[in-house]
Amino acid sequence: MASLVIDATSFTTPNRTGIANYAFHVSRELLRTREVEPRFFTFGNPADFPLPQDRLGRISPLESQVRWLIGRRLFPTGRRDWFWCPFYSWPLGLEKRARVILTVHDLLYRSSLGDRYQARFSSRERRFRRKFETAIRKANRIVAVSGTTADQVAETFGIPRGSIPVAYPGIDVSFFRPIATQAERQTCRRYGILNRFILALSSVSPRRNLETPVRTFASIAQDFPDVDFIIAGSRSYAPEYTERLETLAGEKAPGRIRFLDYIAREDLPALYSGAEMFVSASFLEGFDMPVVEAMACGTPTAVSDIPVHREVCGNVAAYFKPDDAEGLAEILRTRLSRQKISPIFDPGRFSWESSARIYADLIRS
Known about the structure:
single chain; alpha/beta; Rossmann fold; five-stranded parallel sheet; 11 strands; elongated
């Protein structure tokens, strides 16, 4: 049985989103495989570690400060065992003692469309970029969360595309599924949502391009007085952008565009199911999990025409250019003027078990 050490820091936390969810679910599936024996360490609070405690190796106070010591203890026999880094970088020198698998979720920082671009990097962010790119170059194997990301990594770093497997995030269809109307309405009322509504779910940031759907909704709001636009997600990520967007919403469609903060995970299926349409206007994404969750809940979806959306949504979603408010308006008018019909969506290729199998196969190879 192959030995694998996993850095669990990202998901040793009470609230998991994004990368943390990915690392947790793949780790849980790897624990169920017969070919791999995962062990974990974390720089977080061990009490928040969500997997069996007997798999967690405790970090000493000295190792927390002098992190290269971790490799000496966890990999005493040299580069026979594997280490999986689910995010960005690892303790200094660990690659000299273990074979490393690095998961790349996106290269957003390299694009001027990203929220954090090099022209606006702080000194800390510049250090992060150097560490991340060093990690990509030193890793024994790279795994990407989408073919789009894999293509970008191959082109940027000169890595053969065929050597970068894709392990998609999974979707739990027993949880993300259409919710009965009565239960869906009860949940929506708790959030103060009383009318029909269009939903966008993401942190409020420039990359998510929420300005286009805000302007679009404002242009059709008078034609659909029983419909509101709900934007759910953190508003603390980009405060200046958020303030500008809220001002725009208040000017263009007063009282009709609502901003909600964090939505409890247990309420997401009902919120998705209750929406007349889910909208993602992002300029750039590594995967865009909320789109998949919305489709799994039977919600018609309109997405920006970017490569990863084409990859993930196929012919299930309606597409518009990210800055094409008129094109999105036509999609929304058509949807809101007709009875809601759920898309035919096959979530089978988004499986945590399948993704964990990719990692297990790499380790056995």
